UniProtKB/TrEMBL annotation:
Protein name, UniProt field: GTPase Der
Sequence similarity: Belongs to the TRAFAC class TrmE-Era-EngA-EngB-Septin-like GTPase superfamily. EngA (Der) GTPase family.
Full-protein interval shown: 68 to 229 of 506
Task of the protein: GTPase that plays an essential role in the late steps of ribosome biogenesis.
Coiled-coil ranges per UniProt: none
Segments forming domain EngA-type G: 3-162
Organism this protein belongs to: Saxibacter everestensis
Assembly and interaction partners: Associates with the 50S ribosomal subunit.
Positions that bind GTP 1: 9-16, 56-60, 118-121
């Protein structure tokens, strides 16, 4: 079977937009309202001749008590079933307490984690992305899911990691 990449992160950081970029079509639901993706949704993807499955999730809500809401549960299941995890952070917001809690959860799973610093729409955003080294997950890969910036380089890393 194709290796599985789980896309996780807080609501509204651009996970579904990034999934659509990866797929090259609009299948994942993008919303300005946080928390629209409720369950795990799997899509077949292809990059450089490598097939893989990308799993979109609803992510972790700021106010989920102990991060144990049903949506967060689905995200944790997605991580458990994945071969690698793409953790998406909004570089324009920076690392929040929820992001840091997600990092702790990801460490426990021992899955390989790739850090995507999203919403880096132009050069100016690079500095904001660099701050995310503080999450301790290695190099933040800056991307703009909206405009496609950096997504090809990110996918090269994904394929190497899967
Ligand atoms: P999700 O909840 O993490 O799946 O986030 P969505 O993909 O639904 O996106 C939430 C909002 O962020 C939408 O209004 C998107 O258009 C916007 N967004 C996503 N990616 C980017 C990006 O790279 N740059 C900017 N400026 N906005 C983005
Ligand atoms: Mg979504």
């Amino acid at each position: 079977p194709a290796p599985v990449l789980a896309i996780v992160g807080r609501p509204n950081v651009g996970k579904s937009t990034l999934v659509n970029r990866i797929l090259g079509r609009r299948e994942a639901v993008v919303e300005d309202t946080p928390g629209v993706t409720r369950d795990r949704v799997s899509y077949p993807a292809l990059w450089n001749g490598q097939r893989f499955t990308v799993v979109d999730t609803g992510g972790w809500e700021q106010d989920a008590r102990g991060m144990a809401s049903r949506v967060a549960e689905q995200a944790e299941i997605a991580v458990e079933l994945a071969d690698a995890v793409l953790f998406v952070v909004d570089a324009t917001v920076g690392a929040t307490a929820t992001d840091e809690a997600v990092v702790r959860m990801l460490r426990r799973t021992r899955k390989p984690v790739i850090l995507a610093a999203n919403k880096v729409d132009d050069e100016r955003g690079q500095l904001e992305a660099a701050v995310l080294w503080s999450l301790g997950l290695g190099e933040p890969r800056s991307v703009s899911a909206l405009h496609g910036r950096g997504v090809a380089d990110l996918l090269d890393v994904v394929i190497e990691t899967l």
